[in-house]
Write a structure and sequence with these properties.
Blueprint (H helix, E strand, L loop, with lengths): L1 E2 L4 E4 L5 E5 L13 H6 L9 H4 L7 E3 L6 E4 L8 E10 L11 H4 L11 E5 L3 E6 L2 H12 L3 E5 L11 E5 L5 H24 L1 H7 L4 E8 L7 E7 L8 E4 H8 L12
Antiparallel strand pairs: 1-7, 2-3, 3-10, 4-6, 5-6, 6-8, 7-8, 9-10, 11-12, 12-13
Length: 264
C-alpha cells in the first residue's frame, strides 16, 4: 500500500457522495492492478459492466467512526495543526478480531492530509482512505455494509477519467456511468486480445526475462496498436516505462530502450 495523490470526490446535486477516487502516484503499487482487492470482495471477473465491479461480500473492512477519530498532522508548513480524521480501510491480511483502534491505523498517523483534508493510500491488495469529512466516511462504511459498493481503476471517460482506485456507491451511480463501464469492459476485452496477439509475453518468457508488471494499453485513439507499461525485475540493469512491442523484442535480445547497459 502506498500513498496516492490528486484524490477527488464525486457528489450529486444534493451533495451526497457518489464515489471517491483515491488518486495514484508513479509507483509500482499503483500499476499492478487490484487483483487482491477483487478477490477479497468476491467481484466476478467474468461479468461485464457494473456487475463486474460490484462487491458480493464485505470482509475485512474496518473504520474508526465509533472512536474520537485519529489526530494526525495537517499539511500546512505555515500553520502546522493537528486534524481529527476518520477512515475506512481494507487489508486482505486482517485477521478475526482486528479492530479499528489497533496499531494498524498508527502506521499512517504521520501522513499529511491533502489540501482537501484527505489521506488516501492503496495497492493491489488493500486500501485506506482517511478524511476530516466524517459524513463521507460514514456513507462509504454504510454502503460497504449493504454491499452497495463498486470498485474499479480510473482511466476512462467518466467523471473519473484520471487514474486511481475508485470506490463508488453503486445505487447512486448515474445511468451514463453504468453504460460507460459496460463500454469500457468491452474495450478491455478487445485490448486483452490485441495484447495476446502480439505474442510478446511468450517471447519474453522464452528469453528468461521476468517482470513485476507488463500492462497493456492502446497506443493512441485509433486503437490500432498496443503499448505496455513495463516494471521489470533486475532494475539495476533494466529501465521501467511505457514500451512498444518492438522495444520489448529488443529487450529479449538484450538491447534497446529497456536496457541500462547493452550486451556486447
Amino acid at each position: 500500500m502506498r500513498r496516492s495523490f490528486n484524490e477527488s470526490i464525486w457528489r450529486n446535486d444534493d451533495g451526497q457522495v457518489i464515489a471517491v477516487n483515491l488518486g495514484s502516484d508513479f509507483c509500482a503499487e499503483h500499476e499492478f492492478g487490484i487483483k487482491g482487492i477483487k478477490s477479497s470482495f468476491g467481484m466476478n471477473p467474468d461479468a461485464i459492466g457494473i456487475s463486474r465491479h460490484m462487491i458480493t461480500r464485505n470482509q475485512r473492512v474496518v473504520n474508526n467512526l465509533d472512536t474520537k477519530g485519529l489526530l494526525i498532522q495537517k499539511y500546512d508548513w505555515r500553520d502546522k495543526k493537528k486534524a481529527k480524521v476518520f477512515g475506512i480501510a481494507h487489508d486482505r491480511h486482517f485477521h478475526t478480531g482486528y479492530t479499528a483502534d489497533s496499531d494498524w491505523w498508527g502506521r499512517f498517523s504521520k501522513d499529511s492530509l491533502s489540501k482537501d483534508g484527505n489521506c488516501p493510500l492503496w495497492g493491489e491488495d488493500d486500501f485506506c482512505f482517511m478524511s476530516e469529512d466524517r459524513q463521507l466516511i460514514s456513507d462509504l462504511v454504510d454502503a460497504f455494509s449493504r454491499l452497495d459498493i463498486s470498485i474499479w481503476l480510473g482511466g476512462r471517460s467518466t467523471p473519473f477519467s484520471n487514474g486511481g482506485l475508485i470506490l463508488a456507491i453503486t445505487s447512486r451511480l448515474p445511468k451514463e456511468t453504468i453504460d460507460d463501464l459496460h463500454e469500457f469492459d468491452m474495450d478491455q476485452i478487445a485490448l486483452k486480445k490485441a495484447a495476446a496477439d502480439t505474442g510478446i509475453e511468450q517471447i519474453l518468457k522464452e528469453a528468461g526475462l521476468k517482470w513485476y508488471a507488463l500492462s497493456p494499453s492502446w497506443d493512441d485513439a485509433t486503437k490500432s496498436s498496443v503499448i505496455f507499461w513495463l516494471n521489470p525485475r533486475d532494475q539495476q540493469i533494466h529501465n521501467s516505462g511505457w514500451m512498444t512491442v518492438e522495444d520489448l523484442k529488443d529487450w529479449a535480445e538484450g538491447k534497446g530502450k529497456v536496457m541500462k547497459t547493452q550486451k556486447g
